[in-house]
Amino acid sequence: MNSKIEKILSFDVVKQQLKGFLATQNALEEVNHLAPFTKVEKVQQQLRETEDGLKVVRLRGGMPISKLEDVKMHLKRLEIGANLNGMELAHISKLLRTATEISRFFEDMRDAEIEFHELYTWVDKLAHFPSINGQLRQSIGEDGTVLDDASDALRGIRSAIRRNEGEVRSKLNEIVRGKSAKYLSDSLITIRNNRYVIPVKQEYKSIFGGVVHDQSASGQTIFVEPKQVVELNNRLRQKQIEERQEIERILSELSALLAPHTREIANNAFVIGHLDFIEAKAKLANGMKAIVPSINEDNHVSLFDARHPLIDSEKVVPNDIHIGKEFQTIVITGPNTGGKTITLKTLGLLQLMAQSGLAIPAGEDSEVGIFTEIFADIGDEQSIEQSLSTFSSHMTNIVDILRKMDDKSLILFDELGAGTDPQEGAALAIAILDHVGASGAYVLASTHYPELKIYGYNRKGTVNAAMEFDVETLKPTYRLLLGVPGRSNAFEISRRLGLMSQVIDAAKGIMDSESQDLNEMIADLENRRKMAEIEFEEASLSLDQSEKLLKELKEMYHYFTQERENELAKARKQANELVEKAEDDAEKIISELREKQKSIGNAHVKEHEFIEARNKLAQLHPEEEHHLANNRILKKAKAAKKLKAGDEVMVESYGQRGSLIAQNKDGSWQVQVGILKMNVEENGLRPVEKEKESNSPMTKVRSSMGGARSHVPASIDLRGERYEEALSKVDSYLDAAILAGYPQVTIVHGKGTGALRQGITEYLKNHRSVQKYEFAPANAGGNGATIVYFK
User: Fold this and answer.
1) Looking at the structure, do residues 302 and 281 belong to the same domain, yes or no?
2) 649 and 760 both lie in a single domain
3) pLDDT in tens, 136-177
4) In sequence order, which residues have a C-beta less than 8 Å from that of residue 278 and are 6 or more positions away?
5) Are 358 and 37 in contact (CB under 8 A)?
6) By C-alpha distance, which of 21, 635, 579, 5 is closest to 283?
7) How confident is the model at residue 623 (pLDDT cuts 50, 70, 90)?
8) 67: pLDDT confidence band, cut at 50, 70 and 90?
């Protein structure tokens, strides 16, 4: 893809923001070379990695990646047999430690059964050298110093050095603080040529003997190594030489350990850099509140709530942008400062970001395509050096675009045909759009020319669009309106600014009737669009409520079916137990009769004994009729069977009286309760006697409401309830309170964590019968209770 587009659409600025989240040099190189991919598989892989990164940041806050230096040159030196210094070894040591920490981090994620698309594959490529890593950590400090623990010899040498230094300083301190201090230009001990010396005044240089190592710039002070410490300094210097030789040996030994593994270490640096790059993409996405879009291989682009990533999130206006499925060309018309150019840049930049594997600031379910090229002619690119006018500059750019485009191209034209005679410019714009459309490329173009408004209606695969303008406030809203051409609004704006009516009417008279008809058509389209949006919102709300009710109904039916099966199983078990017991008792009675028969030989059993046995057998039957007569459910069922249209009934779930209108096909009844009609199952109805007719209809209403209120409390206490159960109870309670005629009720939810309070508030927002709601006064519970007012 052409590199020029990255600068035009500010993709380079997005990359600069991405760099702010990096910790490694390898990741920095990857960002520097980041460019849009044109293969579907590659784009999908990159987006899956970004999705994985977002999951890691969300679940763990990020990966344990330390700030790492580039080790490429270190590894090249090892490959040619050179030894590394302490700082270079420290860089490699930190790299190896980071690899180990990353592997442990993802091992914990595996144990927690957290799934990723790509990350585990990358982590498995890391090589580990526990022995070498341990030796490096023991030998080299983070600042590159060789530690005492690097070898026993080094530890012993440094111990001797510290002792020798102590002896030298002790001797020199005797001089500095003793009687000879008067010969010194300063009471301090310093070092020259790696040997401890003292500053002596020039005229007393022979007092201390020893060796002169240096003198001050003025020549007034010389630095003398007194003869008392010459031998001590010699021994100290010898130990320092031994220390340096031992350090060189250790560095050589550690370099030799690393040399055979340069390829694996380089691969670790690359893998860690790529993981760092993935995490940076995730953190950038979090900052932009971005999502990972899906890929549409047919290049049907659908961006919901698309936002330009470089505009302040508090000010940017989200827009829905769709191109490719129903139309391949969008023509945005209307005046300047409405947001046409930003809309073009938003589409182009989000497409570049997605094809580069970055998340985009858009809504869920957004889709992007895969374009082999994205071209843009945006802004005033006239060249003073080439003596090109604005029109010439634009046309030079357009010629280049037309020569390179194909059916996999996305083209953005800003103010197409501008900078020349309006009539010729409009004709050129139409011809260019026709040519691009014939090639199969996708186009988003903005223009001032009114001729292109008609073009959007007459061309197949082309749609008009406009940026909304609020005539009341005289300000653009920056909302993209698909299907509606833009208009200037000059007359309306002038009228609101105070221009006389006769002047405006005269201007309208000058305009040709065709232009006036077009503006009136546009105004009518805008009004129809607004009406359609309102109807759509109402339909969406009704649909959401219906889906919610359907879901609840299915859950309740499933619960009812399970409970019915459970109760039937229990009943069958109890019945079998009763039958078994009855059989056992009957067998005992029969056995007793047989025993009596045997005991009296051939004599007959007396009649009263048969009667007693018969009575015992009769007593084995449960008092079914008695129990059934007292069974409330069966009583309700029998009562329900007697129901007929016109009967007065009590709707027991609401505690309300009503009258039956007709029975539904499913067996339920349609009931009139006050001004409401509702469908109620038979087992929820109980016949009641009709109330005596009252002379005053108002008296009857009041009596009915009073009776209802006696069943419905003025408040409901949900403290201690589970979230879902509480909302279900609130739903039933508000219905009952509305039927009871309450003007207001109180919901006590407590303070707690605020989750239940928030859930009830969200529920009340969408309740059609709620006029308003507010927290209770401080002396009545404060924000632990909500007072609900009904319409």
Assistant:
1) no
2) no
3) 999 999 999 999 999 999 999 999 999 998 999 888 888 888
4) 49, 50, 52, 53, 119
5) no
6) 21
7) very low
8) very high
For 400, other C-beta atoms within 10 Å of its C-beta total: 14
**pTM above threshold 0.70:** no
302 lies in the same domain as 341: yes
Cα(368)–Cα(46) distance, integer angstroms: 14
pLDDT at 201 over 50: yes
DSSP letter assigned to residue 24:
B
Cβ-Cβ contacts under 8 Å for 227 (sequence gap 6 or more): 208, 209, 210
Query: Using CA atoms, how far apart are residues 317 and 233, in angstroms rounded to an integer?
Result: 76
Query: How far apart are alpha carbons 548 and 61 in whole angstroms?
Result: 35
DSSP SS3 for 663 = strand
Q: Which of 487, 519, 540 is the last residue of a domain?
A: 487
392 and 465 in a single domain? The answer is yes
Q: Which long-range contacts (CB under 8 A, 24 or more apart) does 350-355 make?
A: 350/303, 350/306, 350/309, 351/301, 351/410, 352/5, 352/6, 352/9, 352/11, 352/36, 353/11, 353/14, 353/309, 354/43, 354/47, 354/293, 355/1, 355/36, 355/37, 355/38, 355/43
Looking at every residue in the chain, the average pLDDT score rounds to 83
Residues with Cβ within 8 Å of 170's Cβ and at least 6 positions away in sequence, in order, are: none
Domain count, the chain: 4
Q: Contact at 8 Å (CB) between 110 and 118?
A: no
Helix/strand/coil (H, E, C) string of 240-294?
Answer: HHHHHHHHHHHHHHHHHHHHHHHHHHHHHHHHHHHHHHHHHHHHHHHHHCCECCE
Strand partners, 410: 374, 442
**Domain check: are 658 and 725 in the same one?**
no
CA neighbor of 486 nearest in space, from 455, 465, 471: 465
pLDDT for 385 beyond 50: no
> What pLDDT was estimated at residue 490?
67
- The rounded distance, in Å, linking the Cα atoms of 440 and 332 is 19
What does the block give as tokens for 38?
Answer: 């044109």
Q: State the pLDDT at residue 259.
A: 94
Helix axes 390-404, 422-439, angle to 10 degrees: 10
Q: Is the pLDDT of residue 627 over 70?
A: no
Task: Note whether residue 653 is domain-resident.
Answer: yes
Digit-coded pLDDT (tens) for 687-734? 887 765 444 333 333 333 444 444 678 788 888 788 778 888 888 888
Element (H, E) at 136: helix 130-139
pLDDT at 347 over 90: yes
Distance CA 143, CA 602 (A): 119
Residues 6+ apart with CB under 8 A from 49: 117, 118, 119, 278, 281, 357
269 plus 392 within the same structural domain: no
Q: Is residue 571 part of a domain?
A: no
Quick one: which of 191, 197, 221, 193 has its CA closest to 209? Answer: 197
Ramachandran region of residue 671, left (φ > 0), alpha (ψ -120 to 50) or beta?
Answer: beta
User: Which of the four pLDDT bands, split at 50, 70 and 90, describes residue 668?
Assistant: confident
Instruction: Please report whether residue 746 resides in a domain.
Output: yes
- Among the residue ranges 35-49, 215-229, 329-343, the one predicted with the least confidence is 329-343
Residue 769 domain flag: yes
Q: Quickly state the pLDDT bin for 581 (edges 50, 70, 90).
A: confident
Give the CATH number of the domain where residue 781 resides: 3.30.1370.110
The three state secondary structure string of 602-645 is CCCCCHHHHHHHHHHHHHCCCCHHHHHHHCHHHHHHHHHHCCCC
How far is the C-alpha of 687 from the C-alpha of 667, rounded, in Å? 16
